[in-house]
Write a structure and sequence with these properties.
Helix content is 38%, strand content 23%. The radius of gyration is 20 Å and the shape is globular. A hairpin with a 5-residue loop joins strand 5 and strand 6. The chain has one domain: Glutamine Phosphoribosylpyrophosphate, subunit 1, domain 1, CATH 3.60.20.30. The chain is α+β, with helices and mostly antiparallel strands and 317 residues long. Helix 2 packs antiparallel against helix 3 and helix 3 runs antiparallel to helix 4. It binds aspartic acid.
Length: 317
Amino acid sequence: MRACVHRIVLLLLLLTSLSAAAEAPIALVLHGGTGGKRAELTAEREKDARATLERALKTGYALLRKGRSSLDAVEAAIMVLEDARVFNAGRGSVLNADGAVEMDASIMDGATRQAGAVGSVKTVRNPIRLARLVMTKTPHVFLISDGAEALARQHGLRFESPEWFITPAQQMRLQQAKEKHGTVGAVALDKNGHLAAGTSTGGLVNKLHGRIGDSPIIGAGTYAEDGVCAVSCTGQGEFFIRNVVAYDVAARMKHGNSDLVTATCALIHNQLPAQGGRGGLIALDAQGNISAPFNTESMFRAWITADGKAHVAIFEP
Ligand code: ASP
């Protein structure tokens, strides 16, 4: 009898692993920007950042589990991060030199290579949603400022007053004109093998009014292409624009036969630092492999793959 039970258990285990093996991989990776030095991170901010990343991860992953698209997962996860004050996107965005918030965001569908982006929006609560609307509801890729906000109004998106986005922590940072990152991003692979990427940010603290960084620029801060990779970048945007980083990861893979880790590390650990560029990125390939290199002291990041186990990390292991 015991041997029989044993055999049934073995058979069940075999069947479970066979069905798991047959299941298409799903994955979701997030970043909350390259952060500052370990000594400057308060216990309170660390706790808040970790909990928020976990919440965003669970929100996006639940959608992937239900069979929803990688685009839906990317958008939903980024909305959670935008609504939290702890990251430099949506509420809690950094202030420009005039003390105002100007937000940028973009999203890209690897299946169709459609993309949408917004720049310099000031009162739209979730710029990532607006970026998706630009993609799906207009023939354009990139809308800025008042034009972008008009589209948001047309589609009933939520608005907040300019003051709502401003947190005391960011007012203090502007006064100190300290480097502040904390942009957010997400890349996802759904069960149909589709990749998507999105990025949302308040940009760089003390930036000139009207400055746009890499985050809303397709190919620089965000890129997704089915069968290749999905990438979301964070760091000093000017370097990511000049090096067309997100697309260069894909180009190295497509044309140079590079694997994901080699391609991303060449950019983040060699090419960018050689020019003085600081930052990092998160990336996923078509098989669900993950890479998240950074050349700063820290990068807030979180990932979850088919086993459903959530991981959050900030510094090098
Ligand atoms: N890359 C963003 C920008 O330059 C900032 C960041 O990632 O922290 O606007």
